[in-house]
Every structure is written in C-alpha cells, then in structure tokens.
Amino acid sequence: MDLLRKAERPLVIVGKGAAYARAEKNVNDFIRATDLPYLPTAMGKGVVPDDHPNCISPARSLALQKADVVLLLGARVNWMLHFGQPPRFNPNVKIIQVG
C-alpha cells in the first residue's frame, strides 16, 4: 500500500482472476475508496463497470506507458500485458500482483 500511496501515476489492472473469484464487491469497494484509475483485461471486464469514471480503457496504451506503480488484481503479466516490458510499460514501473 505504501508504493500505491507514493505513486505519482498508479494504475489498477483487473483481470480474470478477480472475475473467477467473484470479487466484484471487493474490487469495486477498493476502487471507490482509493479513487485509483483502473483498466480491465479482456477477461476482467464486468468486475467494475466499464462506464465507471475511473475506467481508463480508452487510454490503455498511454496509461500502461505512464504508470509508475501497477496493482494487478487477478491478472498476470503475460503476453496480453506485454510481459510488463517497455515500450508498452514504463521501464521503471513497479508491479504488485495479487492473485
């Protein structure tokens, strides 16, 4: 949490693990309480509504490139997330993964 608090450009990525775990309430409560921007993966869509004001799907590429701390909720850093590597991700990004 300290990394997220100190982040200048934090980003939450919601993946299929959050959907499979039926963690909608917990993830929505977290996004509401922290007011962090989030990006759903293709399989994480629907955990938090796409029309939520913190959803940054239209700016996906820019958000990934600029984020200095990424919190993965039920997501993996695989080919769909470009393995967390530049140029898609900030070269200095710190990634926190919650399974």
From TrEMBL:
<keyword id="KW-0460">Magnesium</keyword>
<protein>
    <recommendedName>
        <fullName>Thiamine pyrophosphate enzyme central domain-containing protein</fullName>
    </recommendedName>
</protein>
<feature type="domain" description="Thiamine pyrophosphate enzyme central">
    <location>
        <begin position="2"/>
        <end position="98"/>
    </location>
</feature>
<dbReference type="Pfam" id="PF00205">
    <property type="entry name" value="TPP_enzyme_M"/>
</dbReference>
<keyword id="KW-0479">Metal-binding</keyword>
<dbReference type="InterPro" id="IPR012000">
    <property type="entry name" value="Thiamin_PyroP_enz_cen_dom"/>
</dbReference>
<dbReference type="GO" id="GO:0030976">
    <property type="term" value="F:thiamine pyrophosphate binding"/>
</dbReference>
<dbReference type="GO" id="GO:0000287">
    <property type="term" value="F:magnesium ion binding"/>
</dbReference>
<dbReference type="GO" id="GO:0001561">
    <property type="term" value="P:fatty acid alpha-oxidation"/>
</dbReference>
<dbReference type="GO" id="GO:0005777">
    <property type="term" value="C:peroxisome"/>
</dbReference>
<keyword id="KW-0456">Lyase</keyword>
<dbReference type="InterPro" id="IPR045025">
    <property type="entry name" value="HACL1-like"/>
</dbReference>
<dbReference type="GO" id="GO:0016829">
    <property type="term" value="F:lyase activity"/>
</dbReference>
